[in-house]
Amino acid sequence: MEPTLEQRSAALVFVDYGGFYDSAGAKVSAWAATFVTAPKQTHSLIIFYEGSKDASHGIQAWQHVLDPNHGVVKQLFPSVAHLILSGDTGNGFRSYEMLQFLSTMKRRFGYSVELMPLAPAHAHNITDGLFSHLNVLFSSLKQSARLEGFTAYARAVEQGAYNTTRDTHTHTHTHKHVYTCI
């Protein structure tokens, strides 16, 4: 029998990028990682930034959340030492720059890494669903107020426009899903 996430001191992490256009028509992008840890705890980290999605933003996001002194991952999941990364085969895995960076995570941050990329045209994962919900939220908010710049998007999530904790029902399991904007 395969060891559990808890026995492996591991977190399953779904990574994805999303893009939006603010009220002024400027591009706002986001990097998100949804951590699933034992026992069925789910927490998404979202970083908003200006401009297009590319591997360098993903690398900067990883550096920020895994920083040994100030990184939020160590604060949220102190017992996690192994990351099982999954997601589609876009910029998060396909670029040589990102793959080279991921190969240094043990040395730089103390996390061993296992990659499990999803095939093209895969079924949506939990982080894809997060971006679907955020698209609906931001479209709704822009009907009644202007959202301009990446900080306005982060503020909208932080200020509870998208409930920071919500119940999620999937098949027979119920769990809390917590969001943190960085």
Q: Which structural traits does this protein have?
A:
single chain, 182 residues, alpha/beta, seven-stranded mixed β-sheet, 7 helices
What does this structure look like?
With 182 residues, this protein is of the alpha/beta class. 34% of the residues lie in helices and 33% in strands. It is built from seven helices and seven strands. The chain has helices spanning 55-66, 72-76, 91-94, 96-102, 105-109, 126-144, 150-158; strands at residues 10-21, 27-37, 41-50, 82-87, 112-117, 165-170, 173-181. A seven-stranded mixed β-sheet has the order 5-4-1-2-3-7-6, sandwiched between helices. The longest helix has 19 residues, at 126-144.
Helix-strand blueprint:
Blueprint: E1 10-21, E2 27-37, E3 41-50, H1 55-66, H2 72-76, E4 82-87, H3 91-94, H4 96-102, H5 105-109, E5 112-117, H6 126-144, H7 150-158, E6 165-170, E7 173-181
Parallel strand pairs: 1-4, 3-7, 4-5
Antiparallel strand pairs: 1-2, 2-3, 6-7
Question: Helix-strand pattern, N to C?
Answer: EEEHHEHHHEHHEE
Q: What is the beta-strand fraction? A: 25-35%
DSSP, total strands:
7
Order of strands side by side in the largest beta sheet?
5-4-1-2-3-7-6
**Mean pLDDT over the residues:** 78
- Ranges where pLDDT stays below 50 over 5 or more residues in a row are 162-177
Structural class: alpha/beta
Number of helices: 7
Task: Assign a percent range to the helix content.
Answer: 25-40%
* Through-space gap between termini: 37 Å
Radius of gyration: 16 Å
Sheet having the most strands: 7 strands, mixed
**Shape estimate:** globular
